[in-house]
Amino acid sequence: MSEPALELRDIHKGYNHGTPKEVQVLRGVSLRVAQGEVVSMVAPSGAGKSTLLHIAGLLDSADEGRVILGGEDMTDLGDRRRTRARRDHVGFIYQFHHLLPEFTAEENIILPQLAAGTSQAEAARRARNLLEIVGVGHRADHRPSALSGGEQQRVAFCRALANEPRVLLADEPTGNLDPGTSETVFGALMDLVRETGLSALIATHNLELAARMDRSLRLTEGRFA
């Protein structure tokens, strides 16, 4: 059996929020996401889903527990190695696209590749291919202000996958879109994930979308129910 793409072991995390009493956000969360598996995480506000995604993506550290990507334990890496591992192995998608407004759709996807050492020609080829997969190849030369909300989010999906990560982490990726656009954009995301063979952990409030993934988990009171 191959190593899981992502494994979390007994993750605990608490915050003080400016008071002497610590609030426990995560209380022993464990998770395995197989190679090529797409897992949904359904959670009410305040349940800890964003904290869990940040820990899984090496943006935050757990108080206890282990984070393993592709069979490699990332828990105790120093800042520089964590940054490199995050860049090389993890793709992030947020509710809002955060595209750079002064660059075109294609350039927004090229830039992170150049930062990772990819050649200009290969970065441009990969950007165009990703945009075609999600149906906005014809908008490659447009800046974000000229794109619809759904198109902007699809470009953000492509940017997250540009460096060919092992794992995609998404926090309410269609949460700021109307229902019709959300359906279209979610379909584009799934096409992209399946086309690239990625593993993904996707947080969503939308139970219909969650049910279309390979497996669905519910996070409540800091644990998977």
UniProtKB/TrEMBL annotation:
Domain of life: Bacteria
Gene: lolD
Gene Ontology BP annotations: lipoprotein localization to outer membrane; protein localization to outer membrane
Lineage: Bacteria, Pseudomonadati, Pseudomonadota, Alphaproteobacteria, Rhodobacterales
Single GO molecular function: transmembrane transporter activity
Protein name (Swiss-Prot/TrEMBL): Lipoprotein-releasing system ATP-binding protein LolD
SMART domains per record: AAA (SM00382)
Enzyme class: hydrolase
EC annotation from Swiss-Prot or TrEMBL: 3.6.3.-
Transmembrane segments: none
Entry similarity comment: Belongs to the ABC transporter superfamily. Macrolide exporter (TC 3.A.1.122) family.
One Gene Ontology CC term in the entry: plasma membrane
Keywords attached to this entry: ATP-binding, Cell inner membrane, Cell membrane, Hydrolase, Lipoprotein, Membrane, Nucleotide-binding, Transport
Domain (ABC transporter): residue spans on this chain: 6-225
